[in-house]
Every structure is written in C-alpha cells, then in structure tokens.
C-alpha cells in the first residue's frame, strides 16, 4: 500500500510593503482553497515559511466578498488558524517527505520568496525526486531563481502563469510592488501565459510544474496537482 501523499505549503513572513505602512501578507483563500482540495483526498499537509513562525494575513483577503466560505471557515477554526502562527522553518523540513510543494501568494511573497536559498533547495529536491512544484498568483515569485542541480533555472523554457502586470495595475498596487513579476519571469526564459480576461481562473501545467494565475485559480491549481500525483 502506498503511503499518504504529503503537501508542503509555502507562506510568507512579510507583513508590510517595503518602506510603506501598507499591510500585506498571505492571501488566505489561496491557501484554504488548495488546503481543502488536498484534505478531501486525505493528504497530509504542512506549512513552511522563510523564517518559520507566524505568517501574517493580507487584510484585503479578509473582507467580503474575497473572504469566501472556504477562507472564512478555516480562519474561524482555532485548530487550523493556529497553523498560521506556527509554520516550520525550511531547515526543519526534509524534502524527501513531500510529494509536492505549493507556493501561496499575496504581495508579501515578492520580498521574501525569490532569494531564499533554503526554499530553493527544498523546491529543487522535491522536483528532482519526482515531485510536483506548484504555485498560485504571486507564489510564482518563489520560482524565479530556483536552479536545478545542473545549474539551469527551473522555469527556463517552461510554460508558466502567475499574477499578471495588468492585474497589478487594476488592483491599484503597480506603484507599490518592487518589480514586475511577469516581466521577471519572461526575462528568465519562461514562456509566460495569462488569461484573456483578468481575474479569471487559469492554470498552466508543464510536466510536473503547475502554476495558477491569480486567487481565483487556487482550487484548479490544487486539482491539477492532485491529478499529477494520482497518475
């Protein structure tokens, strides 16, 4: 009998835009939608962040209508919400224990995901041992600089999606973010794709690399990961 599948969720420790008083953090539904999909399959799940400990929540994700039934139910559950205060550090994680890694979003991750070498190592090890690497929305910032053992960027030549520059502009935060993630992904040789309309679900699957464009894509992204793990 095969063992239970295990998912490693990556969340941020950043709570404000750099140099500004504007708060940010994890976009809650991007975690809860995926968590629900994986839980329905009986998968074991754990949260990790660059520094461990608390992951702050993006205030906008806690307001109606963005705080949907999934996010609201998980947030109101003391046992589950305690997970957000006690995330693991990367050095406490053995990549060999996990079948997939899932990078959540929220603008916060633009600061602490891209250059974290410990997260890059976990991602590389999971991928090179046959696991699935996935992200949703700004989570793809965590894949920008991840290199495989042969020195190639994981995303080079690969089809990916993630929060688009158009969506940054429409969300009113284009002047606050530290870089254009879409352009940075293209600069690394990735074949970036996006939906014709902003803020609608889009998922791109390229082998064992699964990326979702925006918060609306979290459930479909997780479902694609499940399909790969079941195949």
Automatic annotation (TrEMBL):
Domain DJ-1/PfpI: 29-226
Gene Ontology MF, one: glyoxalase III activity
Entry keyword annotation includes GTP-binding: no
Keywords, comma-separated and alphabetical: Glutamine amidotransferase, Lyase, Stress response
Biological process, per Gene Ontology: methylglyoxal catabolic process to D-lactate via S-lactoyl-glutathione
Entry's Gene Ontology cellular component terms: cytoplasm
SUPFAM superfamilies per the UniProt record, alphabetical: Class I glutamine amidotransferase-like
PANTHER family reported in the protein's UniProt record: GLUTATHIONE-INDEPENDENT GLYOXALASE HSP31-RELATED, PROTEIN/NUCLEIC ACID DEGLYCASE DJ-1-RELATED
Family, as annotated: Belongs to the peptidase C56 family. HSP31-like subfamily.
Record-given protein name: Type 1 glutamine amidotransferase domain-containing protein
Lineage of source species: Bacteria, Pseudomonadati, Myxococcota, Polyangia, Polyangiales
